[in-house]
């Protein structure tokens, strides 16, 4: 009997253990399931900024923007990209870009000083005068002095700041007259109707020399000269090649160098503020690096950055520099000369005109620019422009109208 009782007791204990174990966590379900893998971190959303420019991507003022786009993409690890709209494809005209930037509808725009002067700072027009400097060092000296004033005037507009500023032309660039008329005397220039963009140069420099300077939009210049609306076009060699002026002009007379114009890039403060702090910092750093590269490398060594062939391999300097363009003009039968006398007279008239215009308007910035220009000419005297000096000089007979 004792053995039966003992067996019964053991059975009860075993049953209790089995029932108890069945209610322990995980025992009834088998092995515990694997923990689910954590979700993959979301990739940062790519941001695209629009860049407005009136330039085409074959000219260096358009092509160089790719350098900035590459810098921004690299510094933001691809989180921010710049989409460049060439040829004013976004539809903005003139000063409309300032309102678009201020409102944040546009993130970045080219800074075209001659275009925006009336909207932002009328004193910028002092750069409208032709042939103001003997050499690149003079121009850069004045530029460095005036740069803080350029930036201050942009910031004063409100909502817009400069991402980069630089001169609008390169060290080897020259300009002059595309003509069908051979120039041998000062009288040959009298009454010539020349297409010229800059109003102050028309009034203070061209008019006193007996030239009639008028403005015609660039796309219309070829047919204007072909049909006799104008006798000549003031332009650089690369502009002459790209516009096929060698089909309508027998001569190219160079006298204007080095060329100057306020250029660069503007950004929207509203658009920048919408970015994360690290991207804001990256954009501003990219702007400064781009500015330094343009001023100290691209503009000084323009020909090193050009492809040299229309539609050829992409290059940050566009497809052609002025040295290359001059060679093409000569290959196409255009006779290329330089006019030292015209250059000297234009420079004298420009210096006098700048002083007179600045005093009349009462712009302290222009008065400062005039003083800096005089300092620069003392510090860096003489014409050192290699592209210009390589050309044969034509000596005009007679006297300029200003000295009769």
Description:
It is built from 15 helices and 11 strands. The chain has helices spanning 2-22, 60-63, 65-75, 96-103, 113-120, 136-157, 199-206, 221-226, 237-242, 269-273, 277-298, 322-331, 340-361, 364-379, 386-389; strands spanning 47-52, 80-85, 108-112, 160-167, 175-179, 193-195, 212-214, 232-235, 251-256, 262-268, 335-338. The protein is 43% helix and 14% strand. Helix 7 links the parallel strand 6 and strand 7 (212-214). The strands form 2 sheets. It has a 6-stranded mixed beta sheet with strand order 7-6-8-5-9-11, sandwiched between helices. It has a 5-stranded mixed beta sheet with strand order 2-1-3-10-4, with helices on both faces. The chain folds into 2 domains: 47-171 and 260-305, D-Maltodextrin-Binding Protein, domain 2; 175-258 and 321-403, Bacterial extracellular solute-binding protein, family 7 (D-Maltodextrin-Binding Protein, domain 2, 3-Layer(aba) Sandwich). The chain is α/β, with parallel strands linked by helices.
């Amino acid at each position: 009997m004792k053995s039966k009782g003992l067996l019964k007791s053991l059975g009860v204990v075993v049953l209790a253990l089995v029932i108890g174990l069945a209610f322990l966590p995980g025992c009834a379900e088998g092995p515990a399931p694997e923990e689910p893998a954590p979700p993959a971190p979301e990739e940062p959303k790519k941001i695209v900024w629009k860049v407005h420019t009136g330039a085409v991507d074959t000219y260096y003022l358009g092509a160089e923007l790719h350098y900035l786009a590459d810098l921004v993409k690299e510094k933001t690890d691809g989180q921010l990209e710049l989409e460049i709209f060439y040829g004013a494809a976004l539809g903005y005209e003139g000063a409309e870009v300032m309102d678009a930037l201020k409102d944040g509808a546009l993130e970045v725009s080219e800074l075209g000083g001659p275009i925006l002067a009336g909207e932002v700072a009328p004193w910028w027009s002092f750069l409208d005068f032709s042939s103001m400097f003997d050499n690149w060092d003079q121009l850069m000296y004045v530029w460095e002095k005036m740069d803080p004033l350029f930036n201050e005037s942009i910031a004063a507009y409100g909502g817009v700041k400069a991402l980069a500023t630089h001169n609008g032309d390169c060290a080897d660039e020259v300009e002059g007259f595309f003509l069908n008329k051979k120039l041998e005397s000062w009288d040959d220039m009298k009454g010539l109707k020349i297409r010229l963009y800059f109003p102050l140069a028309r009034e203070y420099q061209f008019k006193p020399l007996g030239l009639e300077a008028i403005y015609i939009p660039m796309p219309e210049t070829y047919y204007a000269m072909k049909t006799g609306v104008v006798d000549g076009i003031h332009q650089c060699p690369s502009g002459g090649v790209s516009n096929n002026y060698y089909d309508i002009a027998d001569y190219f007379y160079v006298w204007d160098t080095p060329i100057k114009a306020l250029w660069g890039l503007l950004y929207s403060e509203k658009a920048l503020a919408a970015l994360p702090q690290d991207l804001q910092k990256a954009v501003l750093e990219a702007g400064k690096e781009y500015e330094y590269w343009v001023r100290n490398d691209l503009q000084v060594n323009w020909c090193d950055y050009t492809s040299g062939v229309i539609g050829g391999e992409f290059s940050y300097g566009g497809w052609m520099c002025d040295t290359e363009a001059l060679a093409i003009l000569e290959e196409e039968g255009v006779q290329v000369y330089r006019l030292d006398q015209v250059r000297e007279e234009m420079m004298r008239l420009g210096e006098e005109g700048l002083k007179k215009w600045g005093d009349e308007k009462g712009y302290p910035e222009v008065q400062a620019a005039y003083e800096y220009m005089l300092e620069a000419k003392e510090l860096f005297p003489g014409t050192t422009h290699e592209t210009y000096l390589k050309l044969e000089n034509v000596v005009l007979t007679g006297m300029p109208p200003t000295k009769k």
